[in-house]
Design a protein that fits this description.
The structure is a homodimer of 507-residue chains.
Chain A: H1 2-16, H2 21-34, H3 47-54, H4 58-71, E1 74-77, E2 81-84, H5 114-121, E3 129-130, H6 143-156, H7 171-185, E4 194-197, H8 200-213, E5 219-222, H9 227-235, E6 242-243, E7 245-246, E8 249-250, H10 255-258, E9 262-265, H11 279-292, E10 295-299, E11 323-328, H12 329-332, E12 340-343, H13 346-358, H14 366-377, H15 380-406, E13 411-412, E14 421-425, H16 430-439, E15 442-443, E16 445-446, E17 460-464, H17 471-506
Parallel strand pairs in A: 3-15, 5-6, 5-9, 9-10, 10-11
Antiparallel strand pairs in A: 1-2, 4-12, 7-8, 11-12, 13-14, 14-17, 16-17
Helix pairs in contact in A: 1-2, 2-4, 3-4, 6-14, 7-14, 8-9, 8-13, 15-17, 16-17
Chain lengths: 507, 507
């Protein structure tokens, strides 16, 4: 054992020169597990011992171990030390089923009809404050930095960049993303495994069509999530059973029972409930995929924004051949750019590229792709994400502080991360809170609108997109929210009385 | 010389065993030329001599020579015998040929499967010259003017422009387009009737889905066109019967007999044949639509480019409630922008917007939409189109002049318009011309690849995208094209003789 570690330590030592000791150590450990040098179940040296071997502070090693436990690479148990997590052996994926015409585009299925648009046209009066989720603070779009990147990119672009492009997206962007995703999100990414798409929904639609063509029947989704996404999968001809959940998040162990072909997970920050999938369930999801040939579709919509600690690495790092990673610029930069990306297992790459290429038009404009590549490569993206992380973190802190003062009964759920939080409400009060919000000129969403139709209505709450308003409107929006919740608290306090009266009067 | 031939003959002898002597001989000769064993300009042995060397009938050799002349591998001149053709040296293209999806691939019909993508990765040698259709001269993209428009647009944009947008597209762009289309193309356009899409194919796909959802069964298409488009309609569940054609264009009067729900027409400049639909047939198409409740889908892909006169106004002007107008920036500006637009009858507007909105992701990035609005409103688009009109017109004139001098038998079809022309070929020579073009390092398409499978193979020709190459490559491309067509002319001139021999030998 000691000898192994000497070797490993020596390898590692090269990596550990530089300012980011912990990150380097984590990378080296992940690599050793992935490459098989550290077998599942094997015990790691104590943090004290490894720190001495490597000549680094013990805390550096202890922190790295803790994060890798959180990511599902390692396990730590009282009395048994830190070990490499056991998981099912990867096995060769089943042969892809013969290609069938994708079923996704049959309009007869579920035409989203005229009423939706008509309703949108009969616009409700514009609310004074908007705390709906789904959008970053649009006022903070870094126009100057983006313009600089765009100018540089357009000036340097080869002529062919203005033509019809590779359906996978521009090489420049895929190369810049591979570097960024490996560094910032622990994604195993190579440019040739990346497909640029026009948003998360676009990527999911392509995946749905490819899976359906392979003969897949069902993609499990979380009990709470965006119905739009489940709808896209159903449009592709797939069933979307709900994965049950409990207080720790999606009950991944149910996958072996429901036996879907794939599962869609927001592992880093459940949308909308806000939890992080615990390490054992992260590992279990990958184990299930390995054991059954299933796929995990990882929706990493806001993975850049974690406020209490370093972001947990992407699930995809655990097994790049069984996890599809999907990220987007819609939360970190702006939805208006229509830029997202998938990192695909090797076995899916050709089929997804072919499906995307079948409709040549569906790609982002190449100038914006090149601008984003330049934005990433120049470090402007990192700077922007850091600035936004501070801004959103401050808002979340202010939300927690204000609620503690003005509506102390309201619990702020989930981890300190992302652009939204769920405020838990007592049973039977969500609808009243939404009506009160509308009355106060506040646009906000109830938890129930994100519930899978099959899932039990087990909790109520408001989903508050604190990232949405511009800075100038944030304090006003927060004030309006507090007034709503003060009122709900009062109504709750009154409810028993009023119910009593009601009962009395109808009896 | 004799010695060379002894070696060559020996090599060849192995290949020539078997039933298909002539084919085997042709393969061996092509291989010898390709591999450099037979240098350009070198003289081949007489057919009598080679026949004796190989122990085959003289006619076999004479026929093989004649076919290779037709293909452009060899030349045959009175008094100078048969020689290996001198060809343009394949030079490293200044511009890598833009990667384009092969025109005519219909995803519904033959889903672009994995093999297509794999094949694309195993890149064929880049041709020296590209005269395929579908792309404007990418080197002429007005980078400076576009950047100016982009900067102005991004600076002036309201914050909400960076969010999820109206599925119909940005108001600024729809307003600028309505003004431009009315002025330049005679389109009856109001901003609220316009939907921005990511290209013509995107618009057609939306229309196909909406029509299918309404119960439509068939959309008639022209006998010659892009199979990709018919394929998209079939993917939406629609039949795509071919509209017969004659020397005046699509036989619109057949619509009353075939009774489709809609018809897709390139009325201003038939693609690829190049004619303009005559006035009586334009009127007949609209009359049919009015009488039956049918729809005309007008593909105005290059309506800005007419050289002999003012462009004929769009068909849509005749009846905006029965014609859907679809235009694109892919020919006038650059395909890489992914910008196109539909002008819809009132009765379709809600359904198309709903279908588009159902997949929120599928829109162009808003910065590019705003930049294009500014580009239009500032007059930069008009200036660019005027400059390109002069450039393409000059190229077309040079094409006509060069062919008149060097291949006088070749007719340039269609009106003086657009970015491409059809060069008519004698029956039975299209394939040989394509092989010859490949040999000369020239990428060009045959008419047959645009033919509807149900339509008779009534004409042959090359479809020449003279708009495609950059100015620096245009003269070289034209020269290569002339060499190809000279060879085809020669082969034709010799054909009767070789055929006579054939007939003699089989009689």
């Amino acid at each position: 054992m000691r000898n192994d570690w000497a070797t490993f330590g020596a390898d590692l030592h090269l990596e550990l020169r530089g300012p980011r000791l912990r990150a380097g150590l984590m990378d080296a450990l992940r690599e050793a597990v992935r490459g098989g040098r550290l077998a599942p179940g094997s015990r790691l040296p104590s943090s004290r011992q490894l720190a001495a071997d490597l000549g680094v502070a013990r805390n550096t090693v202890a922190d790295a171990y803790a994060e890798l436990v959180a990511e599902g690479w390692l396990t730590a148990r009282q009395g048994s030390g830190t070990r490499v997590a056991r998981r099912a052996e990867p096995r060769p994926a089943a042969e892809p089923a013969p290609e069938r015409p994708p079923a996704g585009l049959s309009p007869g299925n579920t035409p989203i009809g005229i009423p939706a648009v008509r309703a949108a046209r009969r616009r409700a009066p514009v609310p004074a404050y908007d705390l709906r989720t789904g959008s970053p603070d649009l006022a903070s779009f870094p126009r100057t930095a983006w313009l600089r990147a765009y100018r540089r990119a357009l000036t340097a672009a080869p002529n062919e960049a203005f033509g019809y492009g590779d359906p996978r997206g521009r090489t420049e962007l895929r190369t810049a993303l591979a570097e960024y995703l490996a560094r910032a999100r622990g994604v195993h990414a190579r440019p040739e495994r990346i497909v640029i798409c026009a948003g998360f929904a676009h990527g999911l639609m392509l995946l749905g069509q490819v899976l359906r063509a392979r003969g897949a029947r069902a993609v499990a989704v979380e009990s709470y999530g965006l119905g739009l996404y489940a709808g896209l999968l159903r449009k592709a001809g797939l069933a979307t059973p709900a994965l049950p959940f409990d207080e720790r998040g999606a009950r991944v162990e149910e996958l072996t029972r429901t036996a879907p072909d794939a599962v869609l997970l927001t592992a880093a920050h459940q949308f909308p409930l806000g939890g992080a999938l615990p390490p054992d369930r992260r590992a279990a999801a990958v184990d299930w995929a390995r054991a059954t040939g299933g796929l995990v579709l990882e929706d990493d919509y806001d993975g850049e924004f974690r406020y209490d600690r370093q972001p947990v690495g992407a699930l995809q790092g655990l097994d790049p051949e069984r996890v599809v990673y999907i990220g987007t610029a819609s939360k970190s930069l702006a939805p208006g750019l229509r830029l997202a990306w998938m990192v695909l297992p090797e076995g899916l790459m050709d089929e997804v590229a072919a499906e995307k290429g079948a409709v040549v038009d569906w790609m982002c404009g190449t100038p914006d792709q090149l601008a984003f590549a330049e934005f990433l490569a120049s470090g402007a993206y990192d700077r922007h994400v850091r600035a936004m992380r501070l801004r959103y973190r401050r808002r979340r802190d202010e939300l927690v502080t204000a609620l503690a003062a003005r509506a102390p009964g309201i619990h702020v759920g989930g981890i300190a991360a992302g652009l939204h939080a769920v405020l838990s409400l007592s049973p039977g009060t969500e609808q009243a809170a939404l009506r009160s919000a509308a009355w106060h000129g506040l646009a906000v969403q109830g938890l129930d609108q994100f519930r899978h139709p099959e899932a039990p209505r087990s909790q109520e709450g408001l989903v508050v997109g604190y990232g949405t308003p511009p800075d100038s409107a944030w304090q006003g929006a927060l004030g309006a929210l507090c007034r709503v919740l003060e009122g709900v608290g009062e109504a709750e306090a009154e409810e028993p009385r009023s119910k009593g009266i009601d009962r009395g009067s109808t009896a």
